[in-house]
Write the structure tokens for this entry.
Amino acid sequence: MPTEKTKMLDGEPYDASDPELVAEREHARTLTRQYNATDETDHERRNELLDELLGSVGEDCHVEPPFRCDYGDNIHVGENFYANVDCVVLDVCRVEIGHNCLLGPGVHVYTATHPIDAAERAEGLESGEPVTIGDDVWIGGRAVIDPGVTVGDGAVVGSGAVVTEDVPAGVVVKGNPAEIVTELD
């Protein structure tokens, strides 16, 4: 019988009130609270906390507080990663962010989702879909990346965009819902 955590990570409906999941979220909240309270010059402590919180962290990773996430250990970031203030990552499934990526202020990345049917939603089960962000991606401030989306290498997501579908490599998307506005060389 799979655990609620296994179901969650596999994108199946799961019970988020499961004690193991509650404890893991509380641990992530403790670490993010500590991280968000660090002094801007305490780079060593910030790196230690990110190493403990996130699933994997590449070299030269910078996350400006405040930062929020559900579990943390489902987030994997590559080298030369920068996230500006107020970023939120709801990581009930894997979030893979490549090398040389930039997140503007207030970027939200969601893997968590709920049933469309109101009766099913009232039962309290949740699910998720992984998000993948390729190498050399820039996501502008207040953009939202929805569950199940892949953003291709070298893409740019304009500020305020709501990305509901995969973004091909080497394009600029803007709007709600995000649409391709430019192809890059």
In short: Residues 75 and 125 are 22 Å apart (CA to CA).
